[in-house]
Amino acid sequence: MKDQYFGDINDYRNFGLLRAILRASQLRLLIAWMLTPNDGSTDGKHIAYLNKPDHWSHHDPVLFHTIQNLLASGPQRQASSIESTDLFPNTGYFSTQVPDNPAARSAWFASLCQQAEGYDLVFLDPDNGLEVKSKPYGVRNSSKYLYWHEVTALWESGKSLLIFQHYNREKRPPFTQRMLTALSKATPGSLVEAFSTKFVVFLLALQPEHHSLHVPIVNTVQENWAGQIYHWELAQAHYGVSSGSLNELAEVNRSNEHSSMMVCIPAPIGLVNTTPYIEWSFSYTGLAERLTSGSILLGV
User: Fold this and answer.
1) Which CATH number fits the domain that encloses residue 169?
2) 284 is a domain residue
3) Which of 16, 36, 63, 121 is most deeply buried (CB count within 10 A of its CB)?
């Protein structure tokens, strides 16, 4: 996260997702901004949506007008300005900038873990997302990434996790599948989910004691953010699910001998449940019973 991004269209969806999760779950949230210095680029200039309240504000009117007022109050944009509002109940903030140096990064992460005590869900907001091979831990600009050993450490401390992830040049369904499979392996016993937007995807890993919150969270997000934030879609048009996707994720489950892991896949209407490790969870809204969320839960 860079302060120069604050309030852009990605933030509106980002904060809207967090508010929907809190409404549905009542979890205690820690927002870890993973701040890095501003770089003078034009990233974060996407605030034209604030001039179109008829199109955008209905998703979350309170959030929309709060961001609008914060950006109108002065030229300097800072993520910390949201901390003085009441947008996020039961929420704490970790605002220390992320260093590149490995020793300093280790100390930064230790401070994050200490502050996370007493919270149920940690939102991690790296500039780019999860680690890539071209940026090993400790190199220049590694501060823009979250590393898998950090994910595992937070998970093992008992925290559910929500992670900001930019899309890369891969096709989005296989990219999302790959990231969720990796997240599942890093968080034994988790139920993993993804919420996709136009430019980024948010990866969610719920601790076993939070699994029951999955359906309420999905329903609340879809009720408020239809057309902007989507429950994970591995499927192509009309929610077609490939057998390869199911088999790969099921194999991840079978290989996990010590925990019950669930992976959520949007399910097509009418697909017959013939696999013993598949459960169905649907939510319908509207007179036409439009499918707003459907998932296959793969578990051992």
Assistant:
1) 3.40.50
2) no
3) 121
User: Does any domain span residue 166?
Assistant: yes
| Ranges of the chain with pLDDT below 50 | 1, 43-44, 234-241, 243-247, 249-250, 253-254, 256-300
pLDDT of residue 36: 86
**Tokens 């096709």 sit on residue:** 171
| 63 close to 156: Cβ distance less than 8 angstroms | no
Cβ–Cβ < 8 Å for 29, 90: yes
For position 78, what pLDDT does the model report?
66
What is the rounded end-to-end Cα distance, in angstroms, of the chain?
A: 37
DSSP notation for 9-53: HHHHHHHHHHHHHHHHH---EEEE-------S-STT---GGGG-H
Nearest to 116 by CA among 19, 213, 29: 29
Separation CA 136–CA 141 (nearest Å): 10
Q: What's the pLDDT at 76?
A: 63
Please give the model's pTM, rounded to 2 decimal places. 0.79
Domain that holds residue 193: 3-240
Map residue 158 onto helix, strand or coil.
Answer: coil
User: Is residue 23 a contact partner of residue 90, using CB atoms and an 8 Å limit?
Assistant: no
Amino acid at 285: T
192 belongs to a structural domain: yes
Count of domains in the chain?
A: 1
Q: Is residue 254 part of a domain?
A: no
How is residue 144 written in tokens? 């823009």
